[in-house]
Amino acid sequence: MSVDIDKQADPPKDVPPPLPEPIKAIPVRHYGRWIAAVVVIGVLALLIRAFATGKVNWGAIPDYLFNADILKGLGNTLLITVLSMIIGVVLGVVLAVMRQSKNPVTSTIAWVYIWFFRGTPVYVQLFLWFNLGLVFQYIDIMPIYKDEWSDFMTPFLCALLGLGLNEAAYMAEICRAGLNAVDEGQTEAAHALGMSHGKTLRRIVVPQAMRVIVPPTGNEVINMLKTSSLVIAVQYYDLLQAAQNVGRDSGVVVEMLILAAAWYLIATSVLSVGQYYLERYYARGASRQLPTTPLQRLRAKLSAGSGRPTTGGAA
């Protein structure tokens, strides 16, 4: 009697194969995150408790928020920030081009300038400009201008030169990095089309380099706003000087320093918003789809809640 072994070994065709057992995924426990959160909250609570129990006249802060002296100091701070950044950006671009020049004299001068102003503190530079009257009695630019040094070098000019010339050294490196980020083939193609070196920079290189230059430049503007508080060393009337004067006269010294910090926070926040939209503007050629702005995200959430379809738009 013969038995067909192959036919007996085949499983029934109507029975489905057994399903695999479900995987029991156990989430990773991040105990360190919880411990860090508890520690941070505890330190924050202690800090709030310290200021709450301290003898701080919180009511004086809103009372002096729009004080005439405070607003004058704030205006001077914004003015010196804008003018110093203009000097820094313009001179920085010139120095960056000089650094990349094939002329050894101009490239060496630019290198020495950047080396000196980046290597010395801006506080020392401010004092240096302020005290040059001890070694120079007159400023004589024949035949353009001649005057006593003390009349020429005012606190405003000291602050402007100290901040602007120092910023130019940093902006030169930022601009040089942006110019080097553009592929050399772009320059070679422009020269092959008959463009001059200056026209190639204006039309081809600089517009592409702006994507690299703008973000650190925005940071430099915000940093300049805060660094401008150092001009109190040369007796320039800025926000910090105004806060100290008002605090000394009214007897609320700490409160006026907190007020000055609040105004610095407001100004830097406004500048941060402007930097965000400026970076978004120059990212149009590099990103296929720009990130949504906070206003666009808010509109999307409101539209989703109301059931209306959202429409894309620039904001």
Q: Please, could you describe this protein's structure?
A:
This protein is mostly helical and 315 residues long. Helix content is 68%, strand content 3%. The protein is built from 13 helices and two strands. The protein has a two-stranded antiparallel ribbon. The longest helix has 32 residues, at 68-99. The radius of gyration is 31 Å and the shape is flat. The N and C termini lie far apart (88 Å).
Continuous helix count: 13
Strand content: under 5%
- The structural class is mainly alpha
Order of helices and strands: HHHHHHEEHHHHHHH
User: Helix amount, in percent?
Assistant: 55-70%
**Strand order in space, largest sheet:** 1-2
Radius of gyration: 31 Å
Outline, from the CA principal axes? flat
What does the average pLDDT come to?
84
Write the topology of this structure.
Layout: H1 5-9, H2 31-53, H3 60-63, H4 68-99, H5 104-119, H6 122-130, E1 138-141, E2 145-148, H7 149-152, H8 155-181, H9 184-192, H10 197-227, H11 239-250, H12 253-282, H13 294-306
Antiparallel strand pairs: 1-2
Helix pairs in contact: 4-5, 4-8, 4-10, 4-11, 5-8, 6-8, 8-10, 9-10, 10-12, 11-12
